[in-house]
Design goal:
253 residues; alpha/beta; eight-stranded mixed beta sheet; globular
Amino acid sequence: MSECTPFIKGIPDKDVKFSVIIPAHNEENYIGECLESIAKAAQPFKNQVEVIVVLNRCTDRTEEIAQSYNCVTLKNEDKNLSKIRNAGALLAKGEILITIDADSRMTENLLSEVEKHLVSNQYIGGGVTGNFERMSLGIVVSTMLLIVPLLFKYGFISVGVFWCYKKDYQAINGFNENMLMAEDADFAKRLKEWGKKNGKKYGTIKNGMITSCRRFDHYGDWMLLKRPDMILAYIKGTNQKAADEAYYDDQAR
């Protein structure tokens, strides 16, 4: 259990500053560390942070762990990360929305950095860069094989963890529910365009997260070199079979 104070359910709507949304499909091995990292980052914002865990077809202890931290939970059956995140956003009370994956961890100062960026009125929102929990040449090559074609399609953007005001999330209709893969890049591009219309920049908070290498551990560090079909599926974004393999089945958990 956390050394930090667990989150508090039932915070009055007016007191919630941040709503952190976590999609979670059978994440009992990872979500505890994710929630622990959020609890530490939330310490400067006592009783102002709610965490919403969207339980996607969970059959393990994910719900039990989330509730032990006093997270808001809801159940969802969609095989669609856009719909899963949007379902969490509908419940959010906070003026600032943050999305993070259950196998990632935010750094201690991330929420403070998000607040600083947004209150400056220079940024519409943005993404976060970070580090894998381990690194190898294969991981670098696989990552670049995916990033380069997405860069040509979506432009210079950061993904990882998203942050923006809820009103701006709603203005761009959240995540595109027609996208099954690369929905994060699509969201970033549309948020960036919305910011440009409003005279604001798309921001990047550097070194704000650590993410799991579980897919590399399972499939091998050179996995995308061996799977050009998967790269094409990310570029297209609508291949349900590839999306099920990458996200919605239990192979890498």
